[in-house]
Specification:
- The structure is a single chain.
- With 276 residues, the chain is α/β, with parallel strands linked by helices.
- The protein has a single domain, classed as Rossmann fold, CATH 3.40.50.
- Helices cover 47% and strands 12% of the residues.
- It has 10 helices and 7 strands.
- It has a 7-stranded parallel β-sheet with strand order 3-2-1-4-5-6-7, sandwiched between helices.
- Helix 1 links the parallel strand 1 and strand 2.
- The longest helix is centred in the middle third of the chain and has 29 residues.
- It starts with 7 loop residues before the first strand and ends in a 9-residue tail after the last strand.
- The structure holds nicotinamide-adenine-dinucleotide.
- The site of nicotinamide-adenine-dinucleotide (NAD) has 30 residues, from helix 1.
- Belongs to the short-chain dehydrogenases/reductases (SDR) family.
- One of its GO terms (molecular function) is oxidoreductase activity, acting on the CH-OH group of donors, NAD or NADP as acceptor.
Length: 276
């Protein structure tokens, strides 16, 4: 039997990259999926990919930072498919004005704001409050809100659910991203550990994936800015970036009963970057 037969998964950020890879991999294993994303066209494409595998899917326009949107997203799972077993919180941004797929803007920003740069102290003093707040509200607050919305349904339905948050090695290592991003991902790690303890008695497991550098829209500029890409890959013992399927397989393990004794854990598929 497939590993998620009869399960319904909600995936935030499911329109691209890691979220889409999870949606497709989960569908291959028998799940129906609900995609929440701020970009409608990529989310609709994920729905097509899932349906092509013979599973049901629906996309819901969602701003991860909105409590109302997260409530609506979770409600669609229960209203459309009758249950909500798995949540993956893959919606995320590397900077406040990040738009998945707009590679040129991201690359320009890396130069403009000195990511490759010369003067790290200046870079710190120029982190704006708007930048800090927006990155935090999508990555960290958005994770917590999606979990609250899903857990309300899991508790009401008596579902022994599994929640997989997407943190990052940047949550543990300062070299893996800009300050607001790293701090927001540290928060995702603590949200995961804290809620794992709170929800264990209800039979709901919460685990995180802290990926290394994975080939998605978010990291596409690394190949366009060779000096930055080389610097980051120098810290990866396996000497290559990961691919979304490697994260989706990790998420599948955490989402399924194969990980039944895991909760509050953070797994790092990262080619050996983070070995502590
Ligand atoms: N790619 C990597 O190397 C890497 C490494 C570690 C962690 N991550 C994390 O993995 C997650 C997925 O990133 P990815 O690499 O697949 O990037 P991606 O750009 O391919 O996908 C991110 C998705 O999140 C969506 N999104 C962004 N803001 C949103 C919002 N406010 N509300 C709803 N959806 C929103 C985007 O539209 C996009 O579909 C992110 O949380 C990212 O921080 C990525």
């Amino acid at each position: 039997m497939a590993r998620l037969t009869g399960k319904v998964a909600v995936i935030t950020g499911g329109g691209n990259g890691l979220g889409r890879a999870c949606a497709v991999r989960f569908a291959e294993e028998g799940a129906d999926v609900v995609i929440g994303d701020i970009l409608d066209d990529p989310a609709a494409r994920t729905v097509e990919l899932v349906e092509a595998l013979g599973r049901r899917a629906v996309a819901v326009h969602t701003d991860a930072a909105s409590a109302a949107d997260n409530d609506a997203l979770a409600a669609v799972a229960v209203d459309s498919f009758g249950r909500l077993d798995v949540l993956v919180t893959a919606a995320g941004v590397s900077s406040a004005n990040y738009v998945s797929g707009d590679h040129a803007a991201i690359t320009r920003r890396l130069y403009d704001e000195g990511a490759i740069a010369l003067d790290p102290a200046r870079r710190f003093t120029e982190v704006s409050l708007d930048e800090w707040n927006r990155v935090f509200e999508i990555n960290a607050t958005g994770t917590m809100l999606a979990m609250q919305s899903a857990v309300r349904h899991m508790l009401a339905l008596g579902t022994r659910g599994s929640i997989v948050t997407i943190a990052s090695i940047a949550g543990k290592h300062p070299d893996a991203g800009p300050l607001p991003y790293c701090v927001s991902k540290s928060a995702v790690c603590m949200i995961t550990k804290h809620t794992a303890r709170q929800l264990a008695g209800a039979g709901i497991r919460v685990n995180a994936i802290g990926p290394g550098f994975i080939e998605t829209n978010m990291t596409a500029p690394l190949s366009e800015v060779p000096e930055l890409g080389k610097r980051l890959l120098d810290g990866v013992p396996m000497g290559r970036m990961g691919v979304p399927l490697e994260i989706a397989n990790t998420a599948l393990f955490l989402a399924s009963d194969e990980s039944s004794y895991f909760t509050g854990e953070i797994l790092h598929p990262d080619g050996g970057f983070f070995t502590e």
